[in-house]
Automatic annotation (TrEMBL):
Pfam families (UniProt xref): zf-dskA_traR (PF01258)
InterPro entries in the record: Znf_DskA_TraR, Znf_DskA_TraR_CS
Lineage, broadest ranks: Bacteria, Bacillati, Actinomycetota, Actinomycetes, Micromonosporales
Protein name in UniProt: Transcriptional regulator, TraR/DksA family
Record-level Gene Ontology MF annotations: zinc ion binding
């Protein structure tokens, strides 16, 4: 499941094609999910605009929380989609499956669970410790 052209460990084209199809399918799913979430957000805004008569502070707070949740969902979907776009670019560059930090091969098991992974477990843990 790993692809890397610069070290002579390139995978057969059939493996690369299979990986590409998988990554592209998830990217497409996220794009569709984003489109649905945008539509739901627009509907929510239209309902808010047309239904503000008699709102008290609790109603306004609820609407604000719903709007914030919808925006957060949109950002999350865009972030995930960008990760898969980056994974596809790395696949094209021949670096998919190798840690961006230390260039060690990312375990296949990690890529199967998290296909857009860009770091090996060691580098990921190190980053998380520094962030804490």
């Amino acid at each position: 499941m790993l692809v890397h052209d610069t070290v002579g460990t390139a995978r057969p084209q059939t493996d690369v094609d299979r990986i590409r199809l998988s990554l592209q399918a998830r990217y497409d799913e996220l794009s569709e999910e984003y489109d649905r979430a945008v539509l739901q957000s627009q509907v929510l805004r239209l309902v808010e605009v047309g239904d503000t008569a008699g709102d008290d502070q609790a109603d306004s707070g609820t609407k604000t929380a719903e709007r914030d949740t919808a925006q957060s969902l949109l950002r999350t979907i865009l972030d995930r989609r960008a990760q898969f776009e980056h994974a596809l670019a790395r696949l094209d560059a021949g670096t998919y499956g190798f840690c961006e930090g230390c260039s060690v091969a990312i375990p296949v098991e990690r890529l199967e669970i998290y296909p857009s992974a860009t770091a090996c477990v060691t580098c990921k843990q190190s980053r998380e410790r520094r962030a804490a």
